């Protein structure tokens, strides 16, 4: 593994948490993680003061609009993977492997809820946007709440299942801040309201409490 890929490791560990919590996957349930430093089978956790209900996102110096070309084709079939990767991340890959669904969930963490707000932020055709929102509702990531009856219009709110994807997006954001810099600064800052400080993720071993390092963990099948 390169240094760049090693630093994505925390993201993968938290993805396993989400997969195991919301899906019954015997192959995944049989996988054990062993922390070499304490020698125990463990499960990754975020540090105790990490709270997705108590975080706000503030535009950073590198903030900007999504300038990608609008696409009009519909969603492709589910992405397939072989081997351990398919076992560990199957459902998340199928759900967020499409760029628009991933963007919609990320924007929901920024407080966006309505169709027009999502469309304003993303260069996506309206039929594709409607398709992705329907998918996220069907998958239990979003729930619909009517805010207008005539004509009927809905807001899209993150469910508990959707909220639990916060660790995935926050660790990915930190990786992007480090490795995808454009020289303009961070595009987005995470601010923890409880301590009034900038938030930095910490993925720890639930047995000894130490911060996890990719080279100090191995899989036990």
From TrEMBL:
Domain HTH hxlR-type, first and last residues per copy: 86-184
Q: Which PROSITE patterns match?
A: HTH_HXLR
GO MF assignments: DNA binding
Keyword set, alphabetical order: DNA-binding, Transcription, Transcription regulation
What lineage is on file?
Bacteria, Pseudomonadati, Pseudomonadota, Gammaproteobacteria, Cellvibrionales
| Protein's name in the database | HTH hxlR-type domain-containing protein
Top-level taxonomic group: Bacteria
The record lists the membrane-crossing segments as none
Task: Spell out the Gene3D superfamilies in the cross-references.
Answer: Winged helix-like DNA-binding domain superfamily/Winged helix DNA-binding domain
* The keyword DNA-binding is annotated on this UniProt entry: yes
Q: What SUPFAM superfamilies does this protein map onto?
A: Winged helix' DNA-binding domain
């Amino acid at each position: 593994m390169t240094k760049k890929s090693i630093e994505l490791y925390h993201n993968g560990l938290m993805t396993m948490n989400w997969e195991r919590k919301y899906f019954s996957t015997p192959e995944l349930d049989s996988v054990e993680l062993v922390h070499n430093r304490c020698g125990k089978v463990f499960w990754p956790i975020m540090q105790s003061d990490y709270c997705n209900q108590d975080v706000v996102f503030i535009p950073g110096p590198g903030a900007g609009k999504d300038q990608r070309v609008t696409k009009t084709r519909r969603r492709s079939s589910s992405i397939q993977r072989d081997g351990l990767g398919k076992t560990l991340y199957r459902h998340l890959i199928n759900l967020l492997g499409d760029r628009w669904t991933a963007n919609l969930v990320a924007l929901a963490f920024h407080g966006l809820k309505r169709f027009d707000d999502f469309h304003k932020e993303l260069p996506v055709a309206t039929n594709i946007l409607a398709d992705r929102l329907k998918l996220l509702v069907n998958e239990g990531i979003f729930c619909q709440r009517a805010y207008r009856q005539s004509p009927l219009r809905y807001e899209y709110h993150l469910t508990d299942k959707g909220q639990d994807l916060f660790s995935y997006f926050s660790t990915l954001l930190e990786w992007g801040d480090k490795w995808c810099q454009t020289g303009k600064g961070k595009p987005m800052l995470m601010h923890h309201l409880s301590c009034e400080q900038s938030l930095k993720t910490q993925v720890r071993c639930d047995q000894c409490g130490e911060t996890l390092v990719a080279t100090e963990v191995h899989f036990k099948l």
